[in-house]
Amino acid sequence: MRHCIYPGTFDPITRGHLDVLGRAARLFDRVTVAVARDSAKTLLFTAEERIEMLRPSLVSHAHVSAVLFDGLLVEFATAQGATAIIRGLRALSDFEFEFNMALMNRHLRPTVETIFVMPNEAYSYCSSTLVKQVARHGGDVAHFVPPNVAVALKAKFKRP
Predict the structure, then answer these.
(1) 3-class secondary-structure state, position 12
(2) 3-state SS string over 74-143?
(3) CA distance 91 to 153
């Protein structure tokens, strides 16, 4: 069985993330979305909130699951029995960071491949950071995130 890990903070999940997930789901028999519990990033949502926001988007994919994880990604992938890690590349600016991470992961665990997937061009400029910024200032993010995520963002940035 071909199994991959799609890791990220998903703070919050965007339609770009879901597009990459859909592509991974077509390529692999099993996909585990690995939501990072901790991150060097400043997170808006807790790990539990992020995974709960993600779950409704997985209903249409019977062979996709979501879990929280800590620690080194390649160790998690190996423990899960995965042979690949999926990483989305929106733009050339993503490549250098992702390339270096893929090489480090290969050094740590040569049996786990990293596969780069490009999202639909409609989502190439969309990032969780930009979505949060738009939401923080009261903008409409409905085009960029699932409906439940738009509601959660609105609640987080509720103004008195």
Answers:
(1) coil
(2) HHHHHHHCCCEEEEECCCHHHHHHHHHHHHHHHHHCCCCEEEEECCCHHHCCCCHHHHHHHHHCCCCCCC
(3) 25
* Tokens 């993330």 found at: 17
What residues have CB less than 8 Å from 139, skipping those under 6 apart?
none
- Tokens coding 133: 């910024």
Structure tokens at 154: 């609105």
What are the structural domains, with CATH classification, of the chain?
3-123 (3.40.50.620)
Q: 0.90 exceeded by the pTM?
A: yes
Name the residues annotated as catalytic: 17, 41, 90, 128
Query: In which element (H, E) is residue 160 found?
Result: none
Q: With 90 as the cut, is the pLDDT of residue 109 above it?
A: yes
Chain position carrying tokens 């040569």:
110
